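re: ur question from yesterday

yeah so i grabbed the chain u mentioned. its 307 aa long if i counted rite. heres the sequnce exactly as i have it in my notes:
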Amino acid sequence: MLKYLSKITKNLTIAIPITMVSGFIFGLLFSAEFMKNLIIPFTFLMVYPMMVNLNIKKVFEGGDLKAQVLTQLINFGVVPFLSFGLGLIFFKDSPYMALGLLLTGLVPTSGMTISWTGFAKGNLEAAVKMTVIGLTAGSIATPFYVKYLMGATIEIDFFKVVQQIIIIVFLPMIAGFFTRQSLVKKYGFKDFKQNIAPKFPPVSTLGVIGIVFIAMALKAKGIASSPQMLLYILIPLVLIYGFNFTLSSLVGKFFLSRGDAIALVYGSVMRNLSIALAIAINAFGKEGASAALVVAIAYIIQVQSAG
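ran it thru and got these structure tokens back, copy pasting raw so excuse formatting
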């Protein structure tokens, strides 16, 4: 099973579109309402394994302050407002799709941040730190951004969003931290890093695949009645990723060393779509399926652009 999931993890550029098409077909042929009961289990599968591999202690190590500050300025001072602005333009009459666009830009970094920084021979330690800081800060900030920016157009239950983030992010983070500590203590750090840690990302992939499938199945009939919707969603997402990549590349080139610049690009362009998807589909009820559709489609662009 893990071997099969590992192959899927390495081929997300193919797996995500196939999953979306499969979910779409399933949603057309069958009622997908029962699948809402699977959202929480798949969310846990998606988030918890990622948390086990996060070394939270890296946050307290120094040496790359400029890279960290510039990354988070882009992550929280530019991208969310760009996403919100494009949402106003493209989804003026579809506020929950605008919400999905905002959520796509709200929680920075993913497991891809660390992996692709390593592949590109960037500063891996800086990337790990960006991931922990971005995930934690993004989770704390999300309810405030959503309430402040979207509260005038849709009804936002602030405390429900906070509650879902605690369930989706912080409980798995705490559980993952203690799991990591226990495994390192039992097997040693070297054995954990080489033999145990690689087993967790494929499990997270199963959660991602499941949530994307559910998101597409729930919106299948709506998409079928308005197929141009997919193209209309792709346009603002391409603009967000294109602008973000250009800005982070320029900032990295002019202000940072090559290694830190690579970490900055992946630490700002890669978004934590797993968390965004879980928030969309758990915190906003039936209407959240529209927001989740936008986030699910963002996966296509992100996994294609990572290389």
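noticed a couple things. Residues 2-305 form a domain with the Na+/H+ antiporter like fold fold (CATH 1.20.1530.20). also The mean pLDDT is 87.
anyway ttyl
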